Amino acid sequence: MVTPVKVKVRVITDNSGVECWLPVLVTEHGVLKPLLDYLLTHRHDRSVSWMTKVTHSTYLLMQYMEANKHCFHDPVQLFQSFTLALYEGTIGDNGLDPSNLYWLPSRNKTTNGVINAISGLTDWLSENHNVNNMNPLREADSFEKRLNYAAWFRRSHNDFLGHIKDRSISDTVNKVRSISGRQLMATSSDAIAFSEPLFGRFFLEGIGGASDRRVIVRNQLIILMMHFTGCRISDSLHLWVQDVHYDHNDEKKGNVRLYHPEDGLAPDGWKSSKGSTNRAAYLREKYALTSRNRITGTQHVGWKNRISDHKDFFIQLHWFPSDVGRLFLKLWNEYLYYLAVVVN
Question: Percent of the chain beyond pLDDT 90?
């Protein structure tokens, strides 16, 4: 077997015009179909970044399997050795690596992510393709049961909506993974935040230091949304022109709504020929485009928020302090001036 190659492919599953781009692995025999089937199963409920992580984790596993052919006959032992290689690397004290992988030791967080990704994939393969699970659940010992119970108790009693959920102990408390990630406890410390006394200088000289005024204004708008409303940089990149309004209580302040890139209400009361009013339908019918959170490559923009403030699927941003909304609106109007196109 030759080590697979990571590529992005266009996938068409039926005779409709719908297609999607997915990260996959290609071997000497073609696309690795079990992985492709797994990603297709979750393409509507998981993000592109998650799919990329699963694909990369599978790539690492297949690299390891290729470099260690005929060394393992039990999938659990194979996976255990694979995770050890991720944690500790594959280079000996003499600087040599007969496997030719030459992996350096990975951070615990990185390796734990690979373990979780592969565990989810092998669970699905075990259930749907009748293959042996590399990291199955096993009966927990007394100490592991106590840890699981403590974790369950903390989640249950600190959950804001815990009073409406089933508080009975799940059977999973008595189960653990055969191979679990290493955990490190960090000492408590203040959350990382940008120094407030330096923000003004950063805003005017750091972000405002570009030579193109259009770039300066765009970057400053993004920074204002991140610093004074708490949104992520990817959230701000999903903003449409129609999503900024005048505040009803103060017309000098900007009222910003972040709509879900797919389910959010399309602007200007738009409705498709079939009656759809969401943004995914708007982009597809009017511009033949796909929502950026569903595409791959340099045009991809992530979206993690699953909760909205309104039935139209948007999140209302609140400025703190509120006067920042005036600065935002002033810069926003300038930005719209640069975006305007005069048609003769």
Answer: 29
Helix (H) or strand (E) holding 175: strand 175-177
251 in the same domain as 129: no
d(CA 219, CA 213): 10
Mean pLDDT for all residues in the chain: 81
Domain assignment present for 193: no
Q: Assess if residue 194 is contained within a domain.
A: no
Instruction: Return the ∠ at Cα 317 (arms to 260 and 245), rounded to 5°.
Output: 85
In a shared domain, residues 130 and 147: no
- Distance in angstroms (rounded) separating the CA atoms of residues 146 and 305: 33
Domain presence at residue 183: no
Decide the pairing of beta strands 175-177 and 20-27.
unpaired
Q: Do 56 and 6 form a contact (C-beta atoms < 8 A)?
A: yes
Among 227, 222, 178, 171, which residue's Cα sits nearest to residue 198?
A: 227
Same domain, yes or no, for 312 and 215? yes
Q: CA–CA separation, 9 vs 315, rounded Å?
A: 33
- Domain contains 159: yes
Give the chain's domain count. 3
Query: Which tens digits make up the pLDDT trace of 226-257?
Result: 999 999 999 999 999 999 999 988 999 999 99
Mean pLDDT across the stretch 264-285?
Answer: 90
pLDDT of residue 87: 86
**Could you give the angle at which helices 48-67 and 75-88 cross, rounded to 10 degrees?**
100
Residues 280 and 330 in one domain: yes
Whole-number Å distance between alpha carbons of 222 and 337: 17
The dihedral sign for the CA sequence 26, 28, 29, 32: negative
What is the reported pTM? 0.62
Phi, psi of 51 (to 5 degrees): -65, -40
| 321 upstream amide cis, omega within 30 of 0 | yes
Hey, which residues does 259 pair with through a beta bridge?
314
User: What's the start-to-end Cα distance of the chain, in Å?
Assistant: 62
